[in-house]
Design brief:
alpha+beta, four-stranded antiparallel beta sheet, two-stranded antiparallel sheet, 16% strand
């Protein structure tokens, strides 16, 4: 956020709309990533979006590759110096904070009642401030124990998240026509190739997320050793590590929403996920 401090109109510039606390508690960041006011005040002021920010949100491609999102975060939360370093457990809180600071008290969520015979689709207003209070970070201090090994994890950052999303999109695009293949053997071959590539991406994600593996002989932190271990351990061990990391990520995301059908009054829960492309568009 660039400002001319000598501008007589400066007093009329935008002011923070909300203050947010990061679910991570500020852990995992250096002074070049986030500039907190002091160690006793970890709240971040969030400014409303400018007209330029609003225009940026109308460019889906820029939001998809992450560059537009980074610029919006820099503009609305100037204390965040390096948005690419934002941890996965904090990104939802930041998105919601920016939306709330920009004057949106709620977002509309469309939901279809799962009750048999009903199938009513309605739009529900979800309060952003209430949603913000539900976001917590997973317990990354606790390791996943496998026999005499202890596997420690950390949240991945926004740059890593974005790279993974782009890789997943490329795989989906590459294999989108598998079900249209007439030759069954060719379809099976392509399906196996797709599964192999997805597994490789998952292993890459785990390698990034694992900070160390503690063994009786010492700590292993080298990424080349960790991914070699993931590729050569047994299936039960691999799936245990994968699922444990998945549970940590799930604990750090917005919980499922409690819904009540306006027609039949059936109560149910609906998963809720955020992505910049849909959230700011």
């Amino acid at each position: 956020m660039t400002e001319n401090k000598n501008n007589p109109l400066r007093q009329y510039f935008r002011r923070p709309g909300v203050f947010i606390s990061l679910p991570s508690g500020g852990k995992g960041y250096g002074p070049d990533d986030i500039e907190f006011e002091d160690e006793n005040n970890l709240e971040l002021p969030v400014y409303p979006m400018t007209a330029i920010d609003e225009i940026t949100t109308k460019t889906p491609d820029a939001l998809f590759n992450g560059t537009a999102t980074v610029e919006i975060i820099k503009s609305c939360i100037p204390a965040i110096k390096n948005p690419w370093a934002i941890l996965s457990c904090d990104i939802d809180a930041i998105f919601i904070g920016i939306k709330a600071a920009s004057g949106d008290e709620a977002i509309e969520v469309e939901s279809t009642c799962p009750q048999e015979g009903c199938d009513t689709t309605e739009s529900y207003a979800i309060n952003l401030h209430n949603l913000l209070r539900t976001i917590k970070s997973g317990d990354y201090e606790k390791p996943h124990n496998i026999g005499e090994l202890a596997v420690y994890f950390a949240p991945i950052n926004y740059k890593e998240m974005n790279s993974i999303s782009l890789s997943q999109f490329e795989i989906q695009a590459k294999y989108k026509d598998i079900n249209l293949m007439v030759d069954e053997q060719e379809r099976i071959k392509e399906s196996q190739s797709a599964l192999r590539e997805i597994t490789e991406i998952t292993m890459d994600v785990l390698t990034v997320a694992i900070t160390k593996i503690v063994t009786p002989d010492g700590d292993v932190t080298e990424k080349e050793h960790i991914i070699d271990f993931l590729k050569n351990c047994d299936t039960t061990t691999y799936e245990g590590i994968r699922d444990y990391n998945g549970d940590l990520r799930a604990a750090s995301t917005i919980k499922s929403l409690d819904m009540k059908c306006a027609t039949c009054e059936h109560e149910y829960t609906q998963p809720f996920t955020l992505n910049a492309t849909d959230f700011f568009a």
